Amino acid sequence: MAHDKSSILQPPLLSGFLFLLGRNVALGQSTNQSDTFQNWYSHNAVDGDPGIPDSPISELTQTCTHTPPDTPDGWWTVMLSNAAAVFRILIYNRREPSRPVCCADRLIGFTLEAFKQTTTKVFTYTDPNPTAQSIYTVIVPANITDPIDTIKISKSDASPILTLCEVFIFGETACPSGKFGLECERDCNCADRQENCFVSTGGCPSGCAAGYTGEDCYTPCSEGSYGVDCDRTCSEHCKGNGNNCSIDTGHCTGGCEAGYIPPLCDDQCPEKTFGQDCKENCSSACLDGLCHHKTGVCDRCPIGYIGDFCDQVCSLYMFGEGCNQNCSIHCLDQLCNHQTGICDNCTMGRKGEYCEVEIFAAQSGEDGDDTAVIGAVVGTILGVIIVTIIVIFFVWRHRRNRSEDNQNLKQSWTKKRNRETSAKTKSGSSSASTLRPAAEAKAGRLGQRKEEHKQSDSEAQSSPMSSTRLEIARRFR
Ligand SMILES: *[C@@H]1O[C@H](CO)[C@@H](O)[C@H](O)[C@H]1NC(C)=O
Ligand SMILES: *[C@@H]1O[C@H](CO)[C@@H](O)[C@H](O)[C@H]1NC(C)=O
Ligand SMILES: *[C@@H]1O[C@H](CO)[C@@H](O)[C@H](O)[C@H]1NC(C)=O
Ligand SMILES: *[C@@H]1O[C@H](CO)[C@@H](O)[C@H](O)[C@H]1NC(C)=O
Ligand SMILES: *[C@@H]1O[C@H](CO)[C@@H](O)[C@H](O)[C@H]1NC(C)=O
Ligand SMILES: *[C@@H]1O[C@H](CO)[C@@H](O)[C@H](O)[C@H]1NC(C)=O
After folding, report:
1. Which residues line ligand 5 (CB under 6 A)?
2. Among the listed ranges 240-249, 338-347, 445-454, which one has the minimum average pLDDT value?
3. By its UniProt entry, which InterPro entries does this protein fall under (predicted)?
4. What is the pLDDT of residues 350-377, one digit of tens each?
5. Is the CB of 141 under 6 A from ligand 2?
6. Could you give all domains of the chain from N- to C-terminal order, each with its CATH number?
7. Which ligand is nearest to the CA of 124?
8. Between the CA of residue 89 and those of 74, 143, 169, 313, what are the distances in Å?
C-alpha cells in the first residue's frame, strides 16, 4: 500500500494526548462478524489501516469489512485480550466522495454496545446522525469505569450491509507486570523494578532504571555511557577499544586493562599488587613492596640494590641508594660493601671503616697510636733530664771559677803585704816614716789599682761567664 498506516496512529500515540486517550487497544485483537462477504474479513477493521479515500475496490477488500447483502442480522465484534478502561472509539466509514450514493450510508443508525466480562453490557451508543459520516467519534461517559473486554457494532434494520474500514478503541489496559506497548510487547525499565510502567508510554513513576533514558525509559544509554540518566562514562581502562561497558552497571564488558580493578576498571590496583585484574603481587625485593600498577616494576629499590625488580646488587666500585655512590678511593681496589660503602680492605697507609684515617709512615702495626704517645712522653722526659743536667753542669762550673778568683785575689793581697813590709824595714827614720807612709800608701794604693786592673783584664779573658757563653754558642752552632 502506498500510504503509511503509522501516520494515522503515531500522532495521537506520541503526543501528550496519548496519556489521556490511551492507546489503541483494538489493534490486532480477535474479531468476528455475523458472516463474511467474499474476502472482506472482520479483522480488516483492526489492522490499524483505515484505508485512503476513493481507493479502488481491490484495495478496499483488503482494509474494510463487509457482511453479505440483505441479511437481517449484520454485526461485527472485537474481543480484547486484556480488559481496558475505554475512553473513546473512532469508527472509519467507507470514504468515497466520488460515489456519494453508494456505501457510506450503510452505517447510518448503527448501534455500538460495550460489555464487561464478555456478556455484561455497560454502555450502548446509537448513531443519531441522519446522514452518513466519514468518521464517527464515540465518547464513553466518564462515569463508565468498568473494564471493557467486548465491543459489538450492529447495523440498523434499515441498512442492508454492515461495512467498517477501521475501529480504533482508545483505552488503557493493564499489561502483564513489567510490560508495556500496544501489544504489551516491551519491557518496562523502571528504577523500581517491582513497579509497573505506564502501559501506554512505558514511563515510570520512579523514573528510569540505570542504563535507560527517554520518556518511555526504553532508549538504552549510548555507547560509552551508563547509569541513571546515562550520566556516567565507561572507564577508559576497559579492555579493548575502551568505552564498552554494561549500560546499567558500568562493568567493562571485556574486562579491564592490566593495572586496574575490575569490574569498573576506574581505579588502579591496590598497593603492592599489579597486572591483569591486580592478581600479581609486587616483588618482595621492591622497597616497601611497592611497584607500578601495570608493569610490576618496583617504585624504588632498597639501598644497595638496582634493576627494575631490585634483584641486582650494585656493580663493583659502587654502593648506596640507587647504587649512585662511588666506593672510597682509599678502599683496597676501591671495593666496598654495596649497601654501607664500608671498605673490604684499605690501601697501604689507611685505616678505618671507610679507610678515611691516614697512618704515619714511621709507625706501623695495629697499636701505632700507643707507641706514638709513649714515644712522645719518654722523649719529653729525656729532654727535660738532659736540659737539667746541662744546667746543673754549668752552674757547677761557674761556682768553681768564682772560688779560683777569690784565691787569686788572696794571693795578690799576700804579695802586696809582703812588699809593704819589706819597704817599711828599708826606710828606718821615724819623721820621714810619719810623712812617707801616706805617700807610700798612696803609691801602694795606686800600684794595687794597676795590679787589680791588670788582674781584671786577664780575668776578662778567662772569665767563667764568657766561657759559658762560648760553650752555649758552640753547642748551638
Ligand atoms: C464467529 O461468529 C460465527 C457466527 O455467529 C460463529 O459461528 C463462530 O463460532 C464465531 N467465531 C468465533 C471464533 O467466535
Ligand atoms: C452515567 O451518567 C449518566 C448521566 O450523565 C447516567 O445516565 C448513567 O446512568 C450513569 N451511568 C452509571 C453507570 O453511573
Ligand atoms: C563491546 O563488548 C561486547 C561484548 O564483549 C561486544 O559484543 C561488542 O562488540 C563490543 N563493542 C565494541 C564497540 O567493541
Ligand atoms: C599475593 O600475596 C598474598 C598474601 O600477601 C597471597 O595470599 C597470594 O597468594 C599472593 N598471590 C600470588 C599470585 O603470589
Ligand atoms: C664516581 O666516579 C666517577 C669516575 O670514576 C665520576 O665521574 C662520578 O662523578 C663519581 N660519582 C660520584 C657520586 O662521586
Ligand atoms: C681483606 O680483608 C679480609 C679480612 O677482613 C681478608 O680475609 C682478605 O684476605 C683481605 N684481602 C686482601 C686482598 O687483603
Report:
1. 324-326
2. 445-454
3. EGF (IPR000742), Galactose-bd-like_sf (IPR008979), MEGF10/SREC1/2-like (IPR042635)
4. 999 999 999 875 444 444 455 555 556 5
5. yes
6. 6-173 (2.60.120.260), 317-364 (no CATH)
7. 2
8. 20, 16, 5, 91
Which atom of ligand 3 is nearest to 241's Cα?
Answer: 14
Q: How far apart are CA 399 and CA 390, in angstroms?
A: 14
| Spatial contact of 268 and 256, defined as CB atoms under 8 Å apart | no
Q: Which of 143, 145, 148 to mutate to test the pocket of ligand 2 (most atoms within 8 A of CB)?
A: 143
Q: What distance in angstroms lies between residue 187's CA and the mean position of ligand 3's atoms? A: 23
pLDDT for 264-303, tens place per residue?
999 999 999 999 999 999 999 999 999 999 999 999 999 9
pLDDT digits (tens, 9 = 90+) for 387-444: 777 777 777 787 777 666 556 555 655 555 555 545 444 444 443 333 333 333 444 4
Closest protein CA for atom 7 of ligand 4 = 281
Pairing of strands 186-187, 212-213: unpaired
pTM (two decimals): 0.48
Which H helix or E strand runs over 88?
Answer: strand 75-92
